[in-house]
Amino acid sequence: MSALHDLAATIAARKEADPDSSWTARLLSKGPEKCAEKFGEEAVEAIIEAVKGDRDRLASEAADALYHLLVMCAARDVSLADIEAELARRQSQSGLAEKAAR
């Protein structure tokens, strides 16, 4: 299992945890809107580091963004498996064809 799958499993398990015992549970208890807000903040921080060109900081902020993306999705009952299935579906066509189909 990959670190991303391990993370997704931990997030799923924390959905039922006590918000006083887990940052993830606390964030999820605040609802999907707060989870989306936190993902947005982390995504912006990753963008800033990408522009600056600091590889180590970008890796750190990208990890934060991935974590918060998975939390946001979990808040709406979208699993990593759901995301992987969508990515697999898209592999059957080029990016240009996929964009044109929208």
TrEMBL record:
SUPFAM superfamilies: all-alpha NTP pyrophosphatases. Keywords: Amino-acid biosynthesis, ATP-binding, Cytoplasm, Histidine biosynthesis, Hydrolase, Nucleotide-binding. It catalyses: 1-(5-phospho-beta-D-ribosyl)-ATP + H2O = 1-(5-phospho-beta-D-ribosyl)-5'-AMP + diphosphate + H(+). GO terms for biological process: L-histidine biosynthetic process. This is Phosphoribosyl-ATP pyrophosphatase. It comes from Palleronia pelagia. GO terms for cellular component: cytoplasm. Pathway: Amino-acid biosynthesis; L-histidine biosynthesis; L-histidine from 5-phospho-alpha-D-ribose 1-diphosphate: step 2/9. Its main location: cytoplasm. GO terms for molecular function: ATP binding; phosphoribosyl-ATP diphosphatase activity. It holds the Pfam family PRA-PH. InterPro entries: HisE, PRib-ATP_PPHydrolase-like. Belongs to the PRA-PH family. It comes from the Bacteria. The keyword Amino-acid biosynthesis applies.
